[in-house]
Amino acid sequence: MSDQNDKEQFAADLEQRFKDVMQWAVTTWPDSEHPVSLADFGDVEKAVKAISQRFLHPSGEALSPSEGGAQFVDVSPAPWP
Hints:
This protein is mainly alpha-helical and 81 residues long. Helices cover 51% and strands 0% of the residues. The longest helix is centred in the first third of the chain and has 26 residues, at 3-28. It has helices at 3-28, 42-56. The protein is built from 2 helices and no strands. It has one domain. Residues 59-81 are annotated as: Disordered.
């Protein structure tokens, strides 16, 4: 198995295990008056995906902003008129 396959498998496992933890938390939440939903984990889920994507693409060039990549890349700014 190649190094890239190992990285892809690790990233997939990381995301799947996090999804399993989220589902476990929702189903076993002890406070029925204030239930938790999968939507409550949205920001953390984005962070986990960003971590796995940065692991696969350390330079960050291949990532879109929704995947945790840079929203702005300063390539060669024009001077102010």
